[in-house]
Amino acid sequence: MKLQLDCLPCFLRQILEATRKVTNSIEIQEKIIEDAIEIIKNYKKYKTPPELAREIHGLVKLYTNNPDPYKDIKKQSIKTAKNLYNFLKGFLNQQKDKLYWALKISAIGNVLDYGVYSQVELEKNIEKELKKDFALCDLKDFKKLLEKAKKILIIGDNAGETVFDKILLEELKVNEKFYAVKETPIINDATLEDAYDSGLHECSRIISTGCSLPGIDFKECSQEFLEIFNKADIIISKGQGNYESLSEIKKDNIFFLLKIKCPVIAQHIGIDTNNYVFKKQG
Amino acid sequence: MKLQLDCLPCFLRQILEATRKVTNSIEIQEKIIEDAIEIIKNYKKYKTPPELAREIHGLVKLYTNNPDPYKDIKKQSIKTAKNLYNFLKGFLNQQKDKLYWALKISAIGNVLDYGVYSQVELEKNIEKELKKDFALCDLKDFKKLLEKAKKILIIGDNAGETVFDKILLEELKVNEKFYAVKETPIINDATLEDAYDSGLHECSRIISTGCSLPGIDFKECSQEFLEIFNKADIIISKGQGNYESLSEIKKDNIFFLLKIKCPVIAQHIGIDTNNYVFKKQG
After folding, report:
1. Is residue B194 located within the same domain as residue B168?
2. Which of A5, A13, A30 shows the shortest C-beta gap to B33?
3. According to a count of CB atoms within 10 Å of the terminal CB, is the N or C end of chain B lower?
4. Which residue stretches of chain A have pLDDT < 70?
């Protein structure tokens, strides 16, 4: 998905919020916003939103002198999600179509963005979200491919969401299961450490995409990731950043699993914001 | 009120929306956003949000070669509001404390921002909004000053809202009533033409502030406005732009009448967004 003009004010707002999460220094906040303005000035350089996001969020690392400014937020999100694991498993075991609801649980994990929820808030929120059906769900196509699938790859998004994805992985009866995460910390996206911390190694092989942006850039991907990406029978791409990176790729075994939070993506998919989708590419 | 970092992404979003209202040309949209980014880069030059707003919205005039790009939107808003006049008067006549509800009607006019409502939508919306009380209302102080007031000045905001203000003016039993508007068109703010079109000359003397920004800049004000401003027993300042310009002025006869639409103003006043306030200065 191409970068839109709408992304520019949104990135500026995001980086201001992000900066305030990690520093109270007005001086640093000003420096970051000023540099961010310089970056968005050259918006035509960036093909997709995640490419611009990497540059802008890099400023937080630079000015706070911290290679992983969201470390604590990520740890808290994983902890909160792990505390919900049994509750979610219990809910899932009561459902008739377990695959549908496992996908839904994984999609709901997407609300863990920025780890802003307390345990109580998240639990309350999740019960409400669990009642909502997908606004778009290509389950039939997925089940058809799944029957013969030997290799499945999930491309992860945020830390915390990873625990919800574990529940999905546990429902997938496939020989080889891979879970891909970011090579280096970027915003609150899951890294190898976060994936292990979430227990994903118990039900899949954790790999790195090789990328350091909140999405996928094929020029950056590791050889290992590319091989798995190319050989997988099914790929599940989680969240908005991965959607923005992969939505134009011609590959009919990719399924996008996300909560739509942004009007530009909503328009691209043709489904309103705040809805959940499980969408087959093409 | 000082310009905040939060204003920068917000202005960029606003100008993109505004540009799209008046032109479909992607090329012009890009040029305007690029120039707007240049302007917000120098945000420290601007003391208040309206000063920056003038620069940014000036770009729409420049690139569309149109000194009044919101002319049609303003005309439509006034027409829609005039069609509601009898309904609003009818509502007002059923109320016990007519002054309170006349102030409330004037505040509700503030939802006419950008004239995005159709007649039907506005009517539906207004019935709902009419039921909401002010979240903050310094009516007692106002009534006290009003008892002895001879001169009252309303500083207007948007075209369309002007018709709602007329209803307020008609309830104010004061010898001399003044209604101040912008000197030149800026966004959808009311000008002399819009004020006459709204019938404000029937119940007040319409004057210009002398300003061409969506608020007040004392360096720009006409002598006539300054004299009335200084001699008025009561000043009612409508909307956010005027609040941003006047909230630091030491003058205890100013009352701010607005709907809070922005989180920065919400924090400054200490009342959440989407609420109505009628607040005495100081």
Report:
1. yes
2. A5
3. C
4. 114-120
